[in-house]
Amino acid sequence: MTATTHHGIREAIRARIVAGEWQLGELIPGEVEFAEEFGCARTTVNRALQALAEEGIVERKRKGGTRVRPLPSPQAQFRIPVIREQVESRGQEYGHRIVLRELRDPPDEMRTRLQIGSGQKAAYMESLHLAGSHPFAFERRWVSLDTVPGFAEADLSELSANEWLIRTVPFSRGEVGLTATSADPRLAAMLQAEPGEALFTMDRTTWFEDRAVTATTLYYARGYRLEFGI
Amino acid sequence: MTATTHHGIREAIRARIVAGEWQLGELIPGEVEFAEEFGCARTTVNRALQALAEEGIVERKRKGGTRVRPLPSPQAQFRIPVIREQVESRGQEYGHRIVLRELRDPPDEMRTRLQIGSGQKAAYMESLHLAGSHPFAFERRWVSLDTVPGFAEADLSELSANEWLIRTVPFSRGEVGLTATSADPRLAAMLQAEPGEALFTMDRTTWFEDRAVTATTLYYARGYRLEFGI
DNA sequence: CTCGTGATTATGTATGCACATAATATCGCA
DNA sequence: TGCGATATTATGTGCATACATAATCACGAG
Q: What is the pLDDT of residue A142?
């Protein structure tokens, strides 16, 4: 296997790093050297090494050369799961039920997070995501009407709030937090769990440019496990 | 800003996608078209669009053209945190204490996961990661002596087991799972938590090529939150 | 010995070109 | 009309080249 594609070269170099040919933090050969070895143009090696750098396998500095990353804290890539896809990929039918939907005065902490002026209301909703007839996750969501005025009248019978927002508001960035929560009585009732049970929890805040769009917290039913490879 | 670097062009196109210039799933202009618009070579546009494709922003098909991804389920990139760095980045002093370390017969589930033949022992250890004088996380770890024979005699007074393994065994891939666990009495005692309290839990199995290296479960102390941006 | 300046060097990146490859469209033939 | 061969087209990729940029090193002036 001496495919002289940037792809092939990238994998060849990756294999040699993984095999321990160079120490952690050690300088590896330069682009020219590799190019001679693989019998290709420097450009090609450059692309391969840049790709490895983006993956976090190596570090590169002009003039400094390329070195294996000292602490290869593995970068995990995973997709924030779309609940519908998660459920359907388990071969179950997805459904969702809006438990509560109203305009509300957000608590102070949420005002700050969503940049909502005091006195202004925001849309609040609670909904239950179902896998077949079993609860899969319970969602609490705040939506800034300032950023998304149309949300108050949105028809959410077909699309979930999340899907509606994705289609309506292009969103640029977000923050995600993962925690464990003890089920309070309401959560326990919603998710058919014991009060106090440990629930895997994901909360997310998203912005469009500089304006907060929505903040949601998802409480997953018992036994949920978010898996990914590295 | 009309920097004609692949980097600049990538950001320009990204901005236009985010701004909603094209519908989800819609075809965006071809490489030649963009090249004319930006006044650069097609190669440069190609690199920019390929980068966006790797990010999952667009989909490309030969002859089919480039289109905005239909469901921009945001890809999150985050680094699996190295505990020492987490603690130190909070301005606290990192320490760790080995609670238990011995050779043991792994339970069946673990035999399968680590590919350990029946009758063979594996290294088992429990350790406590400290932030200052407070417990930060409790770790249960199995190590395959088949893959890492040196582990039985490794000096773990300076490096944590994880850091020792990273430096010793190059590792190629792993699987990570995130869950919520209720603290059992032992966990509660170790982490100064209430029994039954919800603990954020991360387990990991890593392989070197086709051989399992180690499987660990990390129970984080109360209130831990794994954060990342998208 | 110290400091600054210029030479050196490795990576970063744009370009024009050639050819590869995959998917689609079109046309000719039965 | 139906089907298969062929042309077309958009992306994929490699190469040689030129120049940019940042970091380091060597050297010489003070």
A: 96
Distance CA B136, CA B157 (A): 18
CA distances from B170 to A34, A212, B21 (A): 22, 42, 45
C16 C1' to B77 CA distance, Å: 36
Q: Which of residues 59-98 of B touch strand C (CB under 7 A)?
A: 61-64
How many CA atoms lie less than 13 Å away from A182 in the CB half-sphere? 13
Tokens of A1: 């296997």
Tell me the per-residue pLDDT of B77-133, one tens digit each, with 9 for 90 and over: 666 677 887 888 788 888 889 999 999 999 999 999 999 988 899 999 999 999 999
Strands (E) across A51-195 are located at 58-61, 65-68, 75-79, 94-104, 122-131, 134-143, 173-182
- Least Cα distance to B157 among B203, B71, B95, B65 occurs for B95
Mean pLDDT of chain B: 86
- Residues 6 or more apart whose Cβ sits within 8 Å of residue B113: B205, B212, B215
Element (H, E) at B21: none
- State pLDDT tens for residues B6-18: 888 888 888 888 7
Residue B76 to residue A77, Cβ atoms within 8 A: yes
**pTM over the 0.85 mark:** no
